[in-house]
Amino acid sequence: MYWKYAIKRVLYGLLMYAILIFIFSALFNTVMEQTLRAQIEEQIRGETMRMTSLNESQLENYVINRRNDLYSLYRLNKPVAERIIWRTWDTLTLNLGNSTIIRSSKGSRSVWDVVSEAVPKTLLLFSVAMLIDIVLGLLLGLKKAQKAGGILDKSTSIGTMVVFGMPSWWLGMIMIMFFAYGLKIFPSGGLHSTPPPEGISYFFDLLYHLALPVLTLVVIGFWGRAFLTRNIVLGVLQDDYIMAARARGIPERKVLYGHTMRTSAPPIVTMSLLALLASVGGNIVYEGIFSWPGMGNLYWIALQQNDVPVLMGNLAITTGLYICGLVILDLIYGLLDPRIKVGGRQ
Amino acid sequence: MDNILTVDNLKLYYYTSKGVVKAVDDISFSLNKGETLGLVGESGCGKTTTGFALLKMPTPPGKIAGGKIVIDGIDITPLRENEMRRNIRWEKISMVFQGAMNTLTPVYTIGKQMMETLQEHREMESEEARKRIEKYLNLVGLSGDTVKRYPHELSGGMKQRIAIATALFLEPKVIICDEPTTALDVIVQAQIINLLKDLKEKLDLSFIFITHDLATEAEVSDRIAVMYAGKIVEIGTNQQIYGEQGPCHPYTRNLLAATPRLHAKVSELSFIPGAPPDLLEPPSGCRFHPRCSLAMDKCKEEEPPLIEIEEEHMVACWRCEKR
Amino acid sequence: MTVSDFRRSASEFWREFRKVRSGVFGLIFLAIFICILIFEPVIVPYPEANEKWRDITYWQDLPSSAPPSWINLFTSKKRAVSESIEEYAFSETLAGAMRIQEYVFEYDYSASVAPSDIVFHASGVGKPTVVISIERPDGLSIDLYRKQLEMSPTQDARVSIDRSAQTAAMNFGKKYSPSEGVQLQTIKTTDVLFSEAKQGMFRSPSPLAGIYKLKVTLLLQKAEEKIEDAFVTVAGRVHGILGTDNSKRDIWSGVIAGVKWAMLIGLLTALVSVSIGVVYGVISAYVGGWKDSLMQRIFEIFISVPMLPVLIVMSAIFKPNIWVMIGIMCIFYWVGPVKTVRSMGLQIKEETYIEASRALGASNTRIIFKHMVPLLIPYAFASMALNVPGAIVVEATISLLGLGDATIVTWGQILQAANSGGAMLSGMWWWVVPPGMAIAFMGMTFAFVGFAMDKILNPKLKTR
User: Fold this and answer.
1) Distance, in angstroms, between C299 CA and closest chain A CA?
2) C291 and C412 co-located in one domain
3) For chain A, how are helix, strand and coil distributed in percent, rounded to 5?
4) Cβ atoms of A180 and A143 closer than 8 Å
5) What is the residue-level pLDDT of chain A in tens, covering all 346 positions?
6) CA A94 to chain centre
7) Which of A201, A334, B232, C74 might form a disulfide with A340, Cβ 3.0–4.6 angstroms?
8) DSSP state of B8
9) CB contact under 8 A, C392 and A165
10) Whose CA is closest to B107, among A265, A173, A128, C355?
11) Cα–Cα distance between C9 and C16 in angstroms, integer?
């Protein structure tokens, strides 16, 4: 039952991804091709530089022939619709081309290399932050629900609303100004110091650099988590089955952490993950502020340097991860909520 | 006949921001071993609240404001929450809730929930526990496989049966049934009623049967208590209330009159004019007097006490005298 | 729903709303913002900030990177404030056909930190020679400037002492203090001019308080040459309510000017997108069947797109203006309420009065818009309020990346300038904190209102 649901969901996600990439390819086709043509010219020029033995007309012929060859190689001589479909196919098979300027740390210009290098760094930052965020938020939310309407509840709700409209990157700027430049406690950015230390010190150096960005994210995020948990738990606590469980003599601890939390888990988990996914976009600026070499920062650099292939590749991978996240979300929800896992009435 | 449950002068009030709602205001009754006492009345008369009061689980902002409850010789009135939970609830007295469809946690299997309840009260080996669960599921007409199911996979009737099985399997002395058939269709209703009657005989149980449906009440109850606006206005045996001579209290009489008979010609449906009173500011004297066609001046001033007009038949009305 | 029905439920809603304190605060803050909006031209010293944000000449008389004036309250080392000196002692002498006009401006310097700049302004006709010198309280005089200046009757000619007299000031300083090891280009002209003439005046100047006389002599040779409206502006070391940025722009004016854009962006995006979303959700719920499924598929495509990355790329390539950007944001935001609205719609659809309406022959449009949508209005309002902060932040993010609409001023753009101008590094908190706080504050306002509404609509969440 569940496996059927799971497979359907995954296939659906793939289909969605394909459709989106198609839309992107169509939308940005012109720009990509401009870049491609420029790259082709560059390549031809590089080749002709070394052909000192040929005369003028021979050179011209060579250039024209070469250009035609390369154009047909990159299918630039085919009709527009076909080109878009090919581009979609290329993107889906992760054949993302080369960048205009940006290189990976190993010097490669392949867009895939450049982007895939940045992915784990982003994941590191945001998973650590999300973990702390969820744990703290859940605990606080539970406490708030237990004494709903009390002082803790009311004051922390104010906190939630205060940070509701606060851009995470702005808080980052403030934190950097205060803690990094002002008090000089934390580094102002980067993944690690230069040169990066070896062995166990590398790990600590990493933590040291993670501290401020993670702290900022958690400060903004966990209020929302607590508020959400509180609301969902409160709603569940008022359901009849909780009262019935208590009547049956189940101890309060089990009622709260067993029956209540277990029923609250699906919506809490999904909404938390959704919030995380929503921040996939925001981290572009956020990483930039902290000079964190992840996907978001790459985006910014590609923008500033006008490196369109990297931009497109990054967009494709970001979208892919986003959809992946949505699929995982649904799968986890299905796992947690037996109404989906086991399906309807027999 | 010994009393398995006695209630003396029970009061349960809701302390709201608008004032104190006297939902249950000084009621007394008793339940004999092996009998079914019916609690009847309109919506809002306090019957469900009474049920919760017997479990000492008033819905917030309710609180028990006075009175005494004795179950199986134990005065539960002074007992604290912990003791109630461990020794009284479900052990001595249990409840089948109104709308049992919603009283099962959706994320746990039936088996887990039943097992949890059982093991919370008794030290039992899982095998023994499993056997007992199966026994009671069979008793209510369900197969042992049901333990693997989740609540959403079952029909309303099945969930109701599980609620009954769960209420029974610790073998408590008193079982409160709060509108156990109201949310079900007629056929299932009949099945459940028959099941309850059957179980009562087999296991020699004592029930408190709460409903607003007079017909069902007539089917199952040995004795009936009629509630109005938080007070008991009449208690009698099934025969006394539903029989030839009929009840004495105007409210009860009107209730019965309002129920059309299957074989009588009905040209007009009779009804009781007005609406149930506001329990924040109940009427003075007899609470029924604003709607009573037989009201006298005395009814407006003094509240009538419950007096015995026949053996086992008590009424609270100035108009009623000994038969 | 009739008008009286609507009015009754509205007043009931208001009665409930009044009880939620945070909601009332939210409304108060909202009222404050609206007041700011209305009174903007009155409360800002530079009312054309919005249009002239990128016009250097509009801001040229302000100091650069100056902190707010009120910090003087918190320090003993007072910094000179900005002022305008319009009075002068005038004398004119003739030397043949040449007219020599002398304007003497008095500046009372009593602070501990010199002003940023002193600028002489004059309009007129011709190309007179301008000679400027300054007489200090200690009696020393310094020649600052001697050049021919092109005058125009419509536009001020300006002489900035800070820029034009740098060499003169340094030479003056060198007479009293050794200058080895001192980077003379980094020293401010005014810091030298306004400090005691003694050793160490470059490295650790001590302020020379007193009356300074700025003498401006104009040599007019041709008969038609004349001078009008001569005055001097002093650009202080502090300025205004929120200081200035490194392009000399008054940040207070910028932040206030940004209020209208933030409100416009937030409210318009929220209004349009939630309206679309609610109608879409209701229709989807009502029509059911394959049409519903199709609408859901389309919905899922939209929701699978990560908004910000796509928005950024589109902004980078197509460089839209603010209206197009709002439009694009609506394209992403409409999906927000759809899921909830659809499930609410499905519930309403099952109500018997809907069936009754259909039996009476009501058209689908009528049922949807007269019976179903009104029930969702409270939810729609709460949803709108809660969407506003998000939209504002999205625009601010786009602006921060330098992709915003360059014809207006938004808080995000101010922050972008701060970031690229190294405000964090220089500790220019007055540049970084206020615009962000404005964003956060407006977000907070709508959060208060939105959550209060949410609380009322969701009785489950009501607490004793």
Assistant:
1) 11
2) yes
3) 80, 0, 20
4) no
5) 678 888 888 888 888 888 888 888 777 777 777 777 777 788 778 777 777 777 777 777 777 887 787 777 777 777 777 777 777 777 777 777 777 677 777 777 788 888 888 888 888 888 888 889 888 888 888 888 888 878 888 888 888 888 888 888 899 888 888 888 878 888 777 777 777 777 777 888 888 888 888 899 898 888 888 988 888 888 888 888 888 888 888 888 888 888 888 888 888 888 788 777 776 655 788 888 888 888 888 887 887 777 777 877 888 888 888 888 888 888 888 777 777 666 544 3
6) 17
7) A334
8) E
9) yes
10) A265
11) 11
Report the alpha-carbon distance of residue A95 to residue C168 in Å, rounded: 64
Residue B61 contacts C where some CB pair is shorter than 8 Å: yes
Query: How far, CA to CA in Å, does A179 sit from each of A173, A222, B316, C424?
Result: 10, 21, 78, 11
Do C220 and C281 have their domain in common? no
C131 secondary structure, DSSP code: E
Regarding whether C264 and C196 lie in a shared domain, the answer is no
CA–CA min distance A296, chain C (Å) = 9
Pair (C342, C439) in one structural domain: yes
pLDDT tens by residue, C271-307: 999 999 999 988 888 888 888 888 888 888 888 787 8
Domain count, chain C: 2
Q: Which of residues 322-341 of A touch B (CB under 8 A)?
A: 336-339
Instruction: Show the domain range for C380.
Output: 3-46+251-461
Query: Which residues face C216 on adjacent strands?
Result: C103, C132
* Nearest partner of C162 among C205, C107, C228, C114, judged by Cα: C114
* Residue C189 in domain: yes
One domain, residues C215 and C257: no
pLDDT at C435 over 90: yes
Exposure of B136 by Cβ count < 10 A (0-12 exposed, 13-18 middle, 19+ buried)? buried
Average pLDDT score over residue span C424-433: 88
Residues of C in contact with A323 (CB under 8 A): 304
Q: Which of A247, A254, A263 sits opposite B106 (nearest CB)?
A: A263
Q: Considering only alpha carbons, which residue of chain C is nearest residue B61?
A: C464
Annotate C314-344 with DSSP letters as a single string: HHHHH---HHHHHHHHHHHHTTTTHHHHHHH
Task: Detail the DSSP E strand segments found in C208-366.
Answer: 210-220, 226-235
Quick one: tokens of A228?
A: 């959400």
The top-level CATH class assigned to A111-341 is mainly alpha
E strand segments, C24-140: 83-85, 89-95, 98-109, 117-125, 129-135
- Looking at residue A346, what is its pLDDT? 35
Between strands B62-71 and B3-16, the pairing is antiparallel
pTM of the model: 0.78
Which chain B residues are within 8 Å of A339, Cβ to Cβ?
106, 150, 152
Structure tokens at B311: 């053996």
**β-strands C98-109, C210-220 pairing:** antiparallel
Residues C201 and C303 both lie in one domain = no
Q: What's the token pair of residue A44?
A: 């031809």
Q: What is the DSSP string of B247-293?
A: --SHHHHHHHHHS--SSS--SS-----S-PPPTTSPPSSSTTGGG-T
Q: Respond yes or no on whether ipTM tops 0.95.
A: no
- Residues in chain B within 8 Å Cβ distance of C464: 17, 60-61
Looking at the fold, whether C143 and C279 belong to one and the same domain comes out as no
- On whether both C27 and C104 belong to a single domain, the answer is no
CA distance B182 to B66: 31
